[in-house]
């Protein structure tokens, strides 16, 4: 049987067309259920929709063009932070932290009072004493006056300046009246040197920063403890013949019964050479001395607090 050449040609054309369609679909990678995306064109015509999750977890609809679909962009953390703060209406830049150095006041922190004490001199002589602190602006005076009526008297005066949380030595004077009068003076000069007089002799020596005297070191100790600071272990002391070191250390706390009441006290010992002073300080009264025992060679005196002299 011969086939009509025209029919054979028509069949070949149809088969070729069908094969072309099948091959085209295989090369496109798309199934019959998903239509091919339209070719990119100008304007918004080839854009596709996508959902993008933001950093804070919310989802935002974004439009991504096919030309951008395969582009990977790397964003640094700094850029993310900048973009977030710029676009988010609730983003707030962290407040700057201000660090301020502590300010030490030039105002004397200790109460300026006059206190009464009972005096015992070598365990044989009994008397009375007063101790007072007074200031005008930064100029201060700390003084002790004690007496055994008709027999002896003793006084100590310390003039100093209170600045930047520290005593600044200016003048110390001690007077003892026992049979005859004995006076010792130590004073800072205009040029910063120290001049002293004792038993008719005069001494002069160079000054030093942080200088204290035997009395105002107590003010420094009390002010340090009131500010919850540990006192220094040693201070340069203005003495009659020159500068010496005075040590200061704390001993075990004690409870004293004074002025009719049991009171907790911190105990400190200051010492220079043969002179040793033990102080019982009351934290409840700005570290007021409740008891003082001073030993200077063979001499010893004790003071026990009786109360505020103004009451």
Automatic annotation (TrEMBL):
<keyword id="KW-1133">Transmembrane helix</keyword>
<protein>
    <submittedName>
        <fullName>DUF3108 domain-containing protein</fullName>
    </submittedName>
</protein>
<feature type="transmembrane region" description="Helical">
    <location>
        <begin position="7"/>
        <end position="27"/>
    </location>
</feature>
<keyword id="KW-0812">Transmembrane</keyword>
<keyword id="KW-0472">Membrane</keyword>
């Amino acid at each position: 049987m011969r086939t009509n050449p025209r029919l054979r040609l028509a069949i070949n054309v149809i088969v070729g067309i069908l094969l072309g369609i099948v091959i085209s679909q295989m090369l496109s990678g798309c199934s019959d259920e998903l239509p091919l995306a339209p070719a990119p064109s100008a304007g918004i015509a080839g854009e596709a929709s996508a959902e993008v999750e933001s950093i804070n977890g919310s989802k935002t609809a974004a439009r991504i063009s096919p030309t951008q679909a395969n582009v990977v962009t790397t964003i640094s953390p700094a850029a993310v932070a900048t973009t977030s703060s710029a676009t988010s209406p609730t983003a707030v830049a962290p407040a700057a932290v201000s660090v301020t150095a502590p300010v030490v006041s030039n105002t004397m922190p200790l109460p300026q009072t006059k206190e009464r004490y009972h005096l015992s001199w070598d365990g044989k002589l009994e008397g009375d004493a007063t101790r007072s602190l007074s200031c005008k602006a930064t100029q201060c005076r700390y003084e002790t006056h004690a007496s055994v009526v008709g027999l002896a008297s003793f006084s100590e005066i310390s003039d100093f300046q209170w600045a930047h949380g520290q005593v600044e030595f200016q003048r110390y004077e001690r007077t003892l009246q026992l049979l005859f009068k004995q006076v010792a003076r130590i004073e800072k000069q205009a040029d910063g040197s120290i001049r002293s007089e004792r038993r008719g002799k005069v001494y002069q020596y160079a000054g030093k920063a942080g200088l204290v005297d035997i009395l105002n070191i107590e003010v420094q100790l009390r002010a340090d403890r009131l500010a919850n600071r540990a006192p220094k272990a040693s201070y340069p002391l203005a003495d009659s013949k020159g500068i010496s070191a005075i040590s200061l250390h704390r001993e075990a706390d004690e409870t004293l019964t004074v002025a009719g009441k049991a009171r907790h006290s911190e105990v400190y010992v200051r010492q220079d050479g043969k002179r040793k002073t033990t102080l019982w300080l009351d934290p409840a009264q700005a570290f007021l001395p409740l008891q003082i025992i001073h030993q200077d060679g063979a001499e010893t005196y004790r003071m026990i607090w009786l109360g505020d002299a103004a009451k």
